[in-house]
Amino acid sequence: xRIAQDAIAGTxxxxxxxxxVAPPPDGEDGLEIDVSSAVLAQFGHQxxxxxxxxVSALGVTAGRITIEDKGALDWAIRARLQAALVRGCGVxxxxxxxxxxxxxxxxSDDDKGAQA
Length: 116
Prior knowledge:
The protein has helices at 40-58, 74-89, 95-102, and strands spanning 7-10, 17-22, 31-37, 63-69. By secondary structure, the protein is of the alpha+beta class. The longest helix has 19 residues, at 40-58. It starts with 6 loop residues before the first strand and ends in a 14-residue tail after the last helix.
């Protein structure tokens, strides 16, 4: 799948991330992912791993992705990237591919409803 149009998701607020996606330059194929973060030295590898996982799960093979991290957690990076790619690719999303890639929770290990 190719990124067909420019799209953005997220903010530049603290603890968030802004993801921009764009089509590849004319006549080029391939996927370019650029990550910038104040914590790049500590967490750059993890940010990139999350991006690679989402891109792979969605089957995105061509385009440009820019990730501007402001201290976001993995789930926020994943959600923002998914949103930007859905907007930028302009095709219906196969949610089952994302659920499989993320090890979709079945609720059995969800501690939000746990009794104290």
